[in-house]
Design brief:
By secondary structure, the chain is α+β, with helices and mostly antiparallel strands. Helix content is 39%, strand content 24%. Strand 3 and strand 4 form a beta hairpin.
Length: 84
Amino acid sequence: MQNKHRKTLEAIFGDPVLFNIVWRDIETMLRAHGAELSEGQGSRVRIVLHGVRAVFHRPHPQKETDQGSIKSMRRFLTAAGVMP
């Protein structure tokens, strides 16, 4: 895993919960861990990682992810067995 992916993962699990993580960095980190991403309707993104499935919304018009989505991503990654 590249250093940038590791930093993104650490930011997701950081305390306090951050709200300025760029969504594109999260997608890149997920792919580095072997996740399959597919487009849904509108801004939805379907993610499958180690057999765990989730649907997230890409932030728009901003590029940063909000705190609620970061908390959801944290739960998803934990369920998939991915932690810093």
